[in-house]
Task: inverse folding
């Protein structure tokens, strides 16, 4: 009967009672932890939600002080500095009290992540990377910082990053940054036409005393809801490979496509674009900004097929970054 006993890992020697926290103690906790050292107190979903709301309500305009957020900034900077050939920004829209939100389930992300992993397994190599952008303000700031570095090559960033010219950096006019700002939607939904006496502090205390089974029915009576915009980054790492399966995934997206960044510093990608333009037209006046006009060609390589799918999702304009190192399809 006990040939394969259940392993409890670090809890094996714990006292049984110590594994349970009395309900009374939970009512003393704040809705969100104010201590950054306990970032996982409420689980990844709620912490991502908190970061998403903070990015919109009080966006960071200088080097972040919080170590995990600094790591996010560095991660995004590396993507821009290492010239990932194609970075696609996606967006999903939900409400705070939707069934999926209450279940802590980011359905579009998890389903698409699974599809990307399937394509990766078939190819036996990492051609794609799909991740959440929990801190959209940090993503935008990292992009602006990358542009600043490239347009000011003589400037050396100090070790004390907080002393860098962040006021100037955070006001850089970047087309992709502007597009993300335009698509951010965090609107309060008033579900009642009549005025409702709703004291948020009292209701939070009341909600904490509810059993899990009562919360769903309770939320139906809350007179407000909030639309939430979530952002994601989809990277294509090697444009020379076969991307037919990936292109099929782009046909049926459960996301809004916000924009795409094509790195002109990636030698292969920039040469492909030049070859497409050269073979399609003899006009010297044909510019990079006209690249989408070539998606009508009968014979398309995978790059044009990707651009064609992006155009089918509403991306019909092409712009260049201020440092001329990237094309934006927005």
Result:
């Amino acid at each position: 009967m006990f040939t394969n006993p259940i392993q409890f890992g670090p809890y094996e020697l714990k006292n049984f009672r110590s594994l349970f926290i009395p309900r009374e103690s939970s009512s003393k906790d704040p809705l969100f932890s104010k201590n950054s050292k306990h970032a996982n107190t409420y689980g990844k979903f709620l912490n991502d939600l908190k970061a998403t709301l903070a990015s919109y309500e009080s966006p960071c305009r200088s080097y972040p002080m919080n170590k995990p957020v600094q790591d996010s900034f560095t991660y995004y900077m590396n993507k821009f500095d290492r010239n990932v050939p194609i970075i696609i920004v996606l967006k999903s829209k939900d409400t705070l009290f939707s069934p999926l939100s209450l279940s802590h389930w980011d359905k579009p992300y998890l389903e698409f992540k699974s599809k990307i992993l399937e394509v990766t397994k078939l190819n036996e190599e990492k051609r794609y990377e799909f991740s959440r952008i929990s801190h959209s303000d940090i993503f935008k700031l990292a992009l602006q910082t990358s542009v600043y570095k490239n347009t000011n090559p003589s400037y050396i960033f100090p070790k004390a990053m907080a002393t860098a010219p962040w006021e100037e950096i955070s006001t850089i006019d970047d087309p992709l940054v502007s597009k993300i700002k335009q698509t951010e939607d965090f609107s309060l939904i008033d579900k009642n036409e009549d005025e409702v006496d709703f004291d948020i502090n009292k209701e939070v205390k009341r909600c904490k005393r509810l059993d899990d089974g009562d919360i769903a029915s309770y939320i139906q009576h809350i007179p407000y809801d909030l639309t939430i915009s979530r952002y994601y980054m989809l990277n294509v790492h090697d444009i020379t490979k076969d991307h037919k399966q990936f292109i099929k995934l782009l046909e049926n997206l459960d996301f809004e496509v916000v924009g795409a960044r094509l790195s002109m510093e990636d030698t292969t990608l920039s040469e492909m674009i030049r070859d497409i333009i050269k073979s399609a037209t003899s006009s010297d006046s044909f510019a990079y900004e006209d690249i989408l006009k070539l998606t009508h060609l009968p014979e398309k390589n995978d790059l044009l097929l990707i651009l064609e799918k992006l155009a089918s999702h509403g991306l019909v304009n092409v712009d260049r970054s201020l440092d001329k190192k990237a094309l934006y399809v927005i």
